[in-house]
Each structure stands twice: as structure tokens, then as C-alpha cells.
Design goal:
Number of helices: 5
Structural class: alpha/beta
CATH architecture: 3-Layer(aba) Sandwich
Strand content: 25-35%
Strand order of the largest sheet: 1-6-7-5-4-2-3
Oligomer: single chain
Order of helices and strands: EHEEHEHHHEEE
Distance between the termini: 31 Å
């Protein structure tokens, strides 16, 4: 597994960081060249104003954000959005997973749109979402998970870590490091066609 440590400028929008965008674009290229896919399907359940909302060329993205002010395809709870993707039979080559990293960010995001935070949302807010989206990920597909921890989606969901990036915010000692975990879904059975 690849490990990278870097001090860099981290903003509230991690996709503004060139190092994080390089990780994403490297995974896009990996999917295109190693798996022979021309148009990559990406899902982002916490898109906010992500670069994916601009619908980049060679990428078919589906975006979601709870805040109705954001320019996304859907405005649902992550669990409900993930259930919709699963029920619709959607398949993705890459999952971008950049949820609120802790209860403070979660509360701020919900309060910012005038929604009360329910108890279940503070206990295991995204476990069901991860369960459902991992079932939508194609064999060989990637998860790019951003957060304060390095757990990612995990082997229980059929994923294997291939890289861990640790970004220390420059210019401040009062912020946590951002971890970016890249995982790939391994194929459990032979595909005999």
C-alpha cells in the first residue's frame, strides 16, 4: 500500500486542493486505462459545490447534497440517496466520499440549512450509505474517502486499501490532518463469459 504525507493548504472545499484533485484524476486515469473504460461513472453523495457538479468531459457524475442551494442532481439524506442509487441499479467506477468529518461539521451542515440533527445521525451517520454504495461499485472500481480517519469503507464491504494520503494543513496548528484513503473493490468470483 502506498503512503504519502504532505503539508499543504486545506480549505473547506478539499477539491480545491491540487494534491487531492491529482489523487482523483489519477484514479480516473486508472479506471480508463487499466479497465478500458472511456466514460467514467462517479457518484458523490456529499458534493456541495464539487468540481463534479460541472460535469467534466469523459465523466458521468451523479451528485447529491442535502442543501437545496447546491448545484447537485439530488438533495437527499446520504442514506436515502444511497438507497435510491442501489434501488435504481446504478453502477459506478468511482465513489467520492467526502462527508462531514465529525459531529461539529455534521451539526454545522444541518444547522446551516435549518434541519434538526436526529440522534441516529450522530451515532453511525454514514454506515448504511457506505453499505449501499459499495454494492453499486463495479469490480475493480475505486473509493476515494476523505476524512479525519483512515478507515475508509473497509474489507467488510469488499474493498482493499491501495493508498493512504495524510495532508497536514499548513499555517495552523489547530486543525486536524485530512486523510484520503483510496480503496479498490476486488472481484470475489471469476467472470467467465
Amino acid at each position: 500500500m502506498k503512503h504519502v504525507y504532505r503539508v499543504t493548504h486545506i480549505t473547506a472545499q478539499p477539491f480545491d486542493n491540487p494534491h487531492i484533485m491529482k489523487i482523483i484524476m489519477d484514479e480516473v486515469r486508472h479506471q480508463q486505462y487499466n479497465r478500458g473504460i472511456k466514460k467514467i461513472r462517479i457518484v458523490d453523495p456529499f458534493a456541495r459545490e464539487s468540481w463534479l457538479t460541472t460535469k467534466p468531459q469523459h465523466i458521468d457524475g451523479i451528485t447529491n447534497d442535502l442543501n437545496k442551494e447546491m448545484p447537485t442532481d439530488y438533495h437527499l439524506e446520504a442514506k436515502n440517496f444511497s438507497q435510491l442509487m442501489y434501488d435504481s441499479g446504478e453502477e459506478f467506477d468511482i465513489i467520492l466520499y467526502d462527508p462531514p468529518y465529525n459531529l461539529t461539521q455534521l451539526k454545522r451542515q444541518y444547522d446551516g440549512i435549518g434541519k434538526d440533527l436526529e440522534l441516529w445521525q450522530t451515532l453511525n451517520p454514514f454506515g448504511e450509505s457506505k453499505d449501499l454504495l459499495s454494492k453499486c461499485l463495479t469490480a475493480g472500481g475505486s473509493v476515494i474517502h476523505l476524512g479525519f480517519g483512515s478507515r475508509g469503507f473497509g474489507t467488510r464491504r469488499g474493498l482493499e486499501k491501495v493508498a493512504l494520503y495524510n495532508f497536514e494543513p499548513s499555517g495552523t496548528e489547530n486543525r486536524y490532518n485530512v486523510q484520503v484513503v483510496v480503496e479498490r473493490k476486488y472481484q470475489r468470483t471469476l467472470n467467465l463469459q
